[in-house]
Amino acid sequence: MNKRIISLTAMLLCFLSISLTSCDGEDEGGNYVSPNYVAATWELTDIGYLVATPTSTTRIYTPVDANQCESQTFNFTEDLAFSRNYYQQVDDVCAPKAITGTYGLEQGNIVVTYVPDGATESTTITYDIITLTDVALEIAYTDAVTHELVFLKFTKLVPIID
Questions:
Q1: From CA 154, how far away is CA 42, in angstroms rounded?
Q2: pLDDT < 50 stretches in the chain
Q3: Cβ–Cβ under 8 Å, residues 53 and 59
Q4: Which of 6, 74, 93, 103 has its CB 3.0 to 4.6 Å from that of 82, i.e. a possible disulfide?
Q5: How far is CA 77 from CA 20, 66, 72, 93, in A?
Q6: What is the pLDDT of residue 4?
């Protein structure tokens, strides 16, 4: 019986010494870098709004005409820079416009910070990520003027390699 207790104690000490030495603080986390799947150039394909009926609320999407003033792209880079290229109607002409700034990824959201034209203070807008795949991005935000929830669908622009 004594030998059995001594054997079990020795095995327990062996197990504890192995498990304690393998739990080194350097093992946690490692060098893994989480990929940034948002980093790409995205072309707007659809704009959506919520339509409420007495029994339900539905998202209704309108396709964007790439040849009109609705055309726009969002560009998110690996170094967290952001740009939005779009067109604005000025005297019956679609004039190109651009916004540049930075972005961050926070709890399923894209948080963009930029300085609007003519302003001195930065503005922050939060886009809720609804769908993010290899080729599609759908986001939602609250319009600052209308206070309506707006949905934007994008497709990834793939660079052409010659």
A1: 6
A2: 22
A3: no
A4: 103
A5: 42, 23, 17, 30
A6: 61
**How far, in Å, CA of 73 to CA of 87, rounded?**
10
Q: Are 64 and 28 in contact (CB under 8 A)?
A: no
Cα 48 from Cα 58, distance rounded (Å): 10
Write the single-letter amino acid at 148.
E
Name the amino acid, one letter, at 151: F
What is the C-alpha to C-alpha distance for residues 41 and 119, in angstroms, rounded to an integer? 26
Could you count the other beta carbons within 10 Å of the beta carbon of residue 72?
21
| 140 burial level (CB within 10 Å; 0-12, 13-18, 19+) | middle
Tell me the one-letter amino acid at 107.
Answer: Q
Q: Quote the tokens at residue 90.
A: 């000025």
pLDDT at 8: 54
DSSP-derived secondary structure for 8-29: HHHHHHHHHHHHHHT--GGGSS
The pLDDT value recorded for residue 69 is 84
